[in-house]
Structure formats: structure tokens, C-alpha cells
Sequence to fold (315 residues):
Amino acid sequence: MTTKKVAVIAVGGNSLIKDKEHKAIPDQYVAAAETISHIIDMIEQGWDVVVSHGNGPQVGFILRRAELAIHELHPVPLDYCGADTQGAIGYMFQQAAYNEFLKRGMKKQAATIITQTLVDKNDTAFQNPSKPIGSFMEESDARRHKAEDGWAVVEDAGRGWRRVVPSPIPQRIIEADVINDLIQQSYMVISVGGGGIPVIEREDGSLAGVEAVIDKDFSSAVLANSIQADLFLISTAIEKVALNFNKPNQKWLDEITVAKAKQYLAEGHFAKGSMEPKIKAIISFLEKGGKEAIITTPENIGRALAGETGTRVVP
Fold:
């Protein structure tokens, strides 16, 4: 039996929305199909892949629709927003994959798994909500939501008020065994959308959804460890990671060790909302037995695998 090469590829939710003019579903599909074609290049080279994805903008759209329709329809809890977007983005990726496999004459199929991610109900994030979601509000609306709905709200960088929710650390991917079974049967798997639907374990072991948002790179790393993936690849908007990003002394990184990654992290080289969680997720994956990780853009995945570009992180 040949040894499978398994990769977990985390695709950013913003990568489905190229710019402000291309937010509609057909535009998102075009972007999804482009990313999927690069991933299928990898599959042609003998990789089995699990694709995870972000969902920040898409959850924002659902919440905004719910706000506008509140006089007629019930609100949508955040865990259900996660499930909705996993289904919709999974459908996009699945159809794009089907069409690409067909075009290339490959006998292959993709399957989407609605994925739950276990978080600790005592995670300190629940006392300190920090992740902004949904649309901007006037201060008066924010205060009303706080009083009536129990929302945590903050003023966001002079742009208006927003709701903030907890962002707990993922502990376990509930459907990891299902995902692994499908990978072993050579399916392309789409899972852990938006970091997974956050769930907590009750006293009797049963699960319950919670109002929270999980970082998709952290969850993807947890999944990559649980299925013993050979590679953790983060597909994002930049070709390589840099030190002193956007400064005159900017320096691109080709390959770094975990020790170097930790050093650069401590020195503050990676921005909190963008590169920092990606580097932290990679460190976690490698420290728990992972072999290698890569950060690059979707169109550069092939070149990065060949060692021609991207940033590679090794133990």
C-alpha cells in the first residue's frame, strides 16, 4: 500500500471576495473556482487534501440580512450562521471541484463535512469578547443591543460601534474521524469552515452550540494534527511572510524554524489581526508533531511546494 501524502489547506474567507465591487455570490464562486483549480494541481501531484476556509464576510452578510428583516423574521444565532456558511461555501468549493475534475478527466469527488469544534466552556475568552462581527452601528443602537440582547459592544477604530464575541481556543474537531475516513478513501474533503461551529460539552457529554467565533487557522492546525497530516498550508493574500512588513527594511522569509518563528513573534513582527494567528497556528501544529507548514497565495501553491516561493516553517 502506498503511503498517502495528506495536506490540510486553510483558505482565507476574504479570498472569496476580491474587492468591494465583487461581493455577490457569482463573484465569490469565480474566486472559489480559481483557488480550487490550484488545489487540484496539488491533487494531480499525488496529494490528498482537506480544505478549510474562513467565513468572516459571509457571516457578516447573514447577520446584516437578519438585522434588516428583524421586524418579520427571527434572528440567526451565531453557531447557525457558521453552519449556514459552511454549507454555502462548501457547495461552492464542491461544485468548482466537480467541474475541474470533469475538465481534467480525473475520477475524483469532493465532500463537505459540516464541522463542529469543541471549545472549553471555561475559556477566558467568554469573559473577554474581542472578535468584532456584523455591521457598524451608531452608539445609540449599540447601547440598545447591549441592554436588550446582552451584546458586548465596542467602538471600532473610529469607524463606528460593533458587536464583539468570544474567540475561544479550539480543543478538538468533533468530526475528525469522519474527515480522516474520507481522506483515506481519497475524497477531497471540505471541512472546518470558519474554524468550525463552536460547541461546548455539557456535564453528560452532549454538545451545545455557543455564540462565539473560532480562528480558522487554529482549528485547521488542530485538525491537521488529529489526522496526522504531512503538510499544513495556509493560502492567503501574500506570497511570502516578511519581517518589518511594508517598511523600508522589509525582509522576505524563505524558510524558518519554529524557534525563529517564536523569536520573530516575540519581537512583534507579525500583525495581530493578520499574520500573528497564522504563525501561532503553524507553531502549534509543528510542536505537536507536524512535519512542515507553508504560507503563500493560492496561485503560488505549486511553486511553493517545489521550494521556489512561499515561506516554509519546519520544526
About this structure: Residues 78-104 form the longest helix (27 residues). The chain is about 35% helix and 25% strand. The two ends are 28 Å apart (CA to CA). The domain at 5-120+170-309 is CATH 3.40.1160.10 (Carbamate kinase).
